[in-house]
Amino acid sequence: MTRFTVLKHDTTTRARLGLLLTRRGPVHTPAFMPVGTQATVKSLTPEEVRATGSEIILANTYHLLLRPGPAVFEAVGDLHTFMRWDGPILTDSGGFQVFSLAKLRTVSEQGVTFRSHIDGSLHELTPETVIDLQLVFGSDIIMPLDDVVGYGEPESRQVEAMQRTHRWLSRALDYFVARTMSSEPASRPLLFGIAQGGFRAERRRTSAEFVASLPLDGIAIGGLSVGEPKQELYALLQASLDPLPEDRPRYLMGVGAPEDLWRAVSLGVDLFDCVLPTRLARHGALFTENGRIDILAVRFKFQREPVDPCCDCYTCQHYSAAYLHHLFRAKELLAYRLATIHNLRFIQNQMARMRTAIAEGTFAQAMEAFLTRYGNAEAGYAGEPLLYEGER
């Protein structure tokens, strides 16, 4: 059974229009996955997330392990039942969260032991237990445990992490096959692999070649957007993509700025996730066609028009920029909800625009038009809040 089909290639870039089939429905690619770290896209109901145009969301194994814990899912039903989301869910393995959040972590060949950032309790993740957890969650796309390194770590540590990630992936694949071999192909979850390699292009290619050699349903590119300069990110991404086959989806983990989405799609990426759109929204940083704005700025106090007159989201169709400015100044909870709806709809509109441009053979022109209009305004934005560690 073919689970991923490239429907069309752009003629002047490497952008691809595709269709990914999961057991809970199709995903039209390029696609962006809103992050529901703890079984919720913060401040929104599943219906509101769906209304932004989102077909698939992401949840996190590390956080769900710690709270509410696998026993809750075994008692009340899988993640879909628990959070009332009926579409596909990808769960990442928790490797990045262990790297960025966990206290006193110890990495060994067996796996990783760590103390919870919540209460200090001791836990262990191995390639096998990560698969078990995601099967309990009912995940539609499962990610294996990987060994993540930060920008600037020693070369020896980068090599070690890549090689260990490969060994862990082989263990995870064997275990996944054993656990799901009795399932019908259409009803089993998908397993992606994660290519690492640190911050050398040759290692990136080596890791991508190894992951591509295995019978996996998709290939993720991890360990980027962790502090490296943007141009280095793009160069390493290109090195990671070059060896990958055409017949499987490519997932760039943890990247979600609008300009980065356009550029990464032009290089051949199909799937994305990132906390950035929702995180920024809760700080009053909103995407518009003319760049990112800070809704708390005094210039919006008397603006009767919506934040973005071009936007078709619920927020822009019903509320003025002045009202959002007031909500944020007053720290009213509705502010976070309306801003999150807007930012997610903006991102999903960009993904839809990309898909249309690929289909029409105009992707390069559409990207140039977006980057010219958005990027010039974005250069003047000063209020960029830091990401919460452990979120993507």
Helix fraction by DSSP (H/I, runs of at least 4): 40-55%
Give the CATH superfamily of the largest domain. Answer: Queuine tRNA-ribosyltransferase-like
Broad shape? globular
How many domains? The number is 2
Describe the protein:
This protein has 392 residues and is of the alpha/beta class. The chain has 2 domains: 4-274, Alpha-Beta Barrel (TIM Barrel); 281-378, no CATH class. Helix content is 42%, strand content 17%. It has 15 helices and 16 strands. It has an 8-stranded parallel β-sheet. Helix 10 packs parallel to helix 14 (333-360) and helix 10 runs antiparallel to helix 15. The longest helix has 28 residues, at 333-360. Mean pLDDT is 94; it is low at 377-390.
Short description:
This protein has 392 residues and is an alpha/beta fold.
